Amino acid sequence: MLVQITDGPIDEAAAQAYVANPKCGAVLVFRGVVRDHHQGKSVSKIDYHCYREMAERELRSVAEAAATAHGLDRLAVVHRIGEVLVGEASLLVVAATVHRRPAFEGILALVDDLKRRVPIWKKEYGPDGSHWVDGVTPNSESGPGG
């Protein structure tokens, strides 16, 4: 299993190569990208922050749980931190399974759990300034660290 937090662009080809397995008939790719709006406001970029050791540990736990529960044969999960512009990927999940349904269900469960459990904070920037986005934070109003 490949689980990684990266400071630079996500290497999708490397993640797909990692999960390649001739016994798997399904390879599903989920790419979460920064969109140009959120809650009615324009967004130009997001700055992701984390306490890396804690975030990697929890990300691995979430990935292992999804792989076990859904029978994912091979799995790669990469989350980007730092500045990510509109259209760029902030999350990549690639799952390989014998059949398609476990891949779809496993990725859906993994991404939902990741958003609930992994302590990665994001600050959105737009023409109206910047603000922290609610998520897994010690204090959602002030961002990382409370």
Tell me about this structure.
Helix content is 31%, strand content 38%. It has 146 residues and is an alpha+beta fold. It has a single domain, classed as Alpha-Beta Complex (Aldehyde Oxidoreductase, domain 3). Strands 1-6-8-2 form a four-stranded mixed beta sheet, with helices on both faces. Strands 7-5-9-10 form a four-stranded antiparallel beta sheet. A two-stranded antiparallel ribbon has the order 3-4. Strand 3 and strand 4 form a beta hairpin. Helix 2 packs antiparallel against helix 3 (100-117).
Short description:
The chain is α+β, with helices and mostly antiparallel strands.
**Total E-strand runs:** 10
Strand order of the largest sheet: 1-6-8-2
Q: So how many helices?
A: 3
Radius of gyration, whole Å: 16 Å
Strand content: 35-45%
Q: How would a textbook summarize the main sheet?
A: 4 strands, mixed
Uncertain spans: 137-146
CATH topology: Aldehyde Oxidoreductase, domain 3
Average pLDDT works out at: 92
Structural class: alpha+beta
User: How far apart are the termini?
Assistant: 32 Å
| CATH level 1 name | Alpha Beta
The CATH architecture designation is Alpha-Beta Complex
H-E order: EHEEEEHEEEHEE
Report the helical percentage: 25-40%
The tally of structural domains comes to: 1
Give the overall silhouette.
Answer: elongated
CATH superfamily: Molybdopterin biosynthesis MoaE subunit
